[in-house]
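Example (one chain per record):
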Amino acid sequence: MARTMSLFEAATNKGRLMRQGEIVQLVMDGAGAFVCSAADFMTAQKWAQSKPASSNLVTDRGRFIEKIEILIARPNSFVTTRGSQEPLTRLAKAMKLSGYDMGEWLLPPEVKEALKPKLPVFKSQEQKDAEKAAAAAEAADGPAPPS
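Predicted structure:
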């Protein structure tokens, strides 16, 4: 008796699956690529392994990928980036730490903004001098009497 292929096997058959710590990248030949968290991927994988595959590769990929709630896709992929801002930002930061070039991925503007390095705000010399003068004037006048 021939073994039937699971939905997971059919959906990932013509692709490369790369696990890198907390993130998983799936590159599908001719259909683009996406990255998701390992936890989201494992949930979808367990679900898809228990379902039989259909004879349509596109349908199988669609059914499998719709179970992944938060993902970041490449331009012109089979799927588009989806998820709310907080989880997408966490995923994008994990990707950046893993060495991904974030310019190659479809990211919402809020997530791109969150990935920009936060530069410290330095005070100008004039602001520092004014603060010193105000502190010196206050010290010379002494503390204000209680009212």
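Caption: The mean pLDDT is 87.
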